[in-house]
Design goal:
6 helices, two-stranded antiparallel ribbon, globular
Length: about 200
């Protein structure tokens, strides 16, 4: 039986790992956070890749197709992370999958004058494919491949958590996906063990 997890974990340090962390196991129970197009839409809003929709929704078939594409991309990210953490080259079909999604992105830049009179450059997607919304995730995966130190991509040290993260700590010793959850649990357990042994 799968555990239902409502909140998305967005502390991995990589948009690609944030997507990967929507599936796995917590507290020994498997979970899948992207079961429906609605779940995917909520995740895309949470990571700021999609604005909340007012009005016209894409067709249900389009939404289902995007969910399948997100699952396919997540599988490619999982294979990429496996290759990076084992020191093996990523499989060519994984690179093909990433490049397929990256090709759907048409990024353009505009100069924008905001309400306070400040000018800034804004990048926006102009692609017309359903995959366009997933292109930043593929880009984040590609950046993991070409810029990250593989030794800094880690799985949480908790026995009951499978979340991935990029260790950006100065000393490179981060063990937990989050100190607020797994780290605090481990500290509390160690404290109980010390006191029960005394």
């Amino acid at each position: 039986m799968e555990r239902e997890v409502r909140e998305f974990f967005l502390e991995s340090g990589s948009l690609a790992l944030d997507l990967l962390n929507t599936r796995g196991a917590w507290d020994g129970m498997p979970h899948e956070q992207l079961r429906s197009p609605r779940d995917l839409s909520a995740w895309l809003e949470a990571v700021a890749l999609q604005e909340p929709r007012d009005g016209l929704e894409p067709s249900l078939s389009t939404q289902r197709l995007l969910l399948r594409e997100a699952h396919r991309l997540r599988d490619d990210v999982a294979r990429l992370v496996d290759a990076l953490t084992t020191g093996t080259p990523p499989p060519s079909h994984v690179l093909f999958g990433l490049n397929r999604v990256l090709a759907a992105s048409y990024t353009s830049t505009s100069v924008v004058l905001d309400s306070e009179g400040v000018t800034r450059l804004v990048d926006f997607e102009t692609g017309n494919s359903n995959l366009t919304v997933l292109a930043p995730v593929a880009r984040a995966a590609a950046e993991l491949l070409v810029t990250s130190e593989a030794s800094r991509i880690r799985r949480c040290a908790s026995d009951t958590c499978e979340r991935w993260f990029v260790d950006t700590s100065k000393g490179g010793r981060r063990k937990w996906c989050s100190m607020a959850t797994c780290g605090n649990r481990a500290k509390a357990e160690a404290h109980r063990e010390r006191h029960s042994a005394a």
